[in-house]
Write a structure and sequence with these properties.
Layout (H helix, E strand, L loop, with lengths): L11 E5 L4 H7 L3 H7 L4 E7 L3 H4 L7 E5 L4 H18 L3 E4 L4 H10 L3 E5 L10 E3 L7 H4 L22 H14 L4 E5 L11 H15 L2 E4 L6 H11 L3 E3 L5 H9 L4 E4 L2 H9 L3 E5 L4 H4 L8 E5 L15 H12 L2
Parallel strand pairs: 1-2, 1-4, 2-3, 4-5, 5-6, 7-8, 7-10, 8-9, 10-11, 11-12
Helix pairs in contact: 1-11, 4-5, 7-10, 8-9, 8-13
Length: about 325
């Protein structure tokens, strides 16, 4: 099949990004550009079903396809069925954003006229349109490299996340029940242990921030992060409260009601970028040049000590005083 990316001939595009949470959101940054380049195109997004809540209301996604299995025989059967399903859809363009062996299989057997992936990656023969990797920058912007071969030049972009009104009501009811006025949010957890700033430092900083700003510290947690939040509250003492159990959407609503979020490097940081919440992220062994939204979103800030880039030091070389000073400055902006 001849390669064509002509706007008059492209009707269906498949973008593949199975996970994780933050990457699902970041990949959608260029979807508006695809829609503007290919008027009337149908964009299908292939993801793992557990991440649907992140993008289910995205204005530039027309259809979703899902994978659900993580292991076992059912995992392989599901992938075989998905390969066949993709082939039957007869996509004009398939964009493999994830660059995994499995996503390359989907891409290759799609038999799309244009199969796009990165040049000089393993098994890159599956792509008949190969993109060059650009310079290091925030990961959402990096993803535009894959659509450059389509004649699309990167420019300003938005991360899109729509919060359900029911989630706003859930949070407003909780705020009224707890009789909270103004507050800031701390999200001390992470599924990756070496990305977690020392909880004692979090608690010390939160105590100083609460005193200086007259704000209540609300400790946000996911199911696997509850103990981090409980420990932070125990160490901080007064002027702190546990957030209620939240879904992703309810957590976003809570953030929208707050003055500021303080968190580790992770998906919650990208969610905050999408909903326009002031944020300070603490980076240890990951490079903020890749993962901090600060370069592209004025509401975002981060702290990073390049001389202390170690997975073994959960203090990250960042002091309580540095975080407190930056927080007060950001709150005054």
């Amino acid at each position: 099949m001849p390669i064509t990316t002509d706007p008059d001939e492209v009707r269906k595009i498949l973008v593949i990004q199975l996970g994780p949470f933050g990457d699902i959101l970041l990949t959608t940054a260029y979807f508006e550009y695809l829609k503007n380049r290919y008027i009337g195109v149908e964009i299908t997004y292939l993801i793992k079903k557990k991440y649907l809540a992140i993008v289910k209301d995205h204005p530039y996604v027309d259809r979703f396809m899902f994978l659900e299995k993580d292991n076992g025989l059912s995992y392989y059967l599901e992938r075989i069925k998905m390969t066949i399903k993709i082939r039957k859809q007869k996509y004009d363009i398939v964009i493999d954003q994830q660059n995994l062996i499995s996503t390359k299989i989907f891409t290759f057997f799609s038999k799309a006229a244009a199969r796009i992936g990165y040049k000089n990656s393993r098994l890159d023969f599956v792509y008949n349109v190969k993109a060059e990797r650009g310079p290091k920058r925030y990961n959402a912007a990096v993803r535009f490299d894959l659509i450059k071969p389509l004649g699309i030049s990167p420019g300003p972009y938005q991360l899109v996340y729509k919060i359900n009104q029911q989630s706003f009501k859930y949070v407003s009811d909780w705020i009224a029940k707890e009789k909270i006025n103004r507050f800031f949010v701390i999200s001390p957890g992470s599924p990756v242990n070496w990305k977690k700033w020392n909880i004692k430092l979090y608690a010390q900083a939160a105590a100083h921030i609460a005193k200086k700003s007259k704000l209540i510290a609300v400790w946000l947690w996911a199911r696997s992060e509850k103990n981090d939040a409980l420990e932070g509250i125990r160490l901080m003492g007064e002027n702190s409260i546990m957030a209620p159990p939240t879904s992703l959407d309810q957590a976003a609503a809570l953030l929208r009601n707050s003055e500021l979020l303080i968190c580790n490097d992770g998906g919650i940081n990208h969610l905050a970028a999408a909903i326009g919440v002031k944020t300070i992220a603490l980076f240890g062994a990951t490079d903020p040049l890749d993962w901090s939204p600060a370069a592209d979103f004025k509401t975002h800030h981060h702290l990073y000590n390049q001389e202390n880039n170690s997975k073994k030091d959960n203090g990250f070389g960042i002091t309580v005083e540095e975080l407190v000073d930056l927080t007060i400055k950001v709150l005054d902006e």
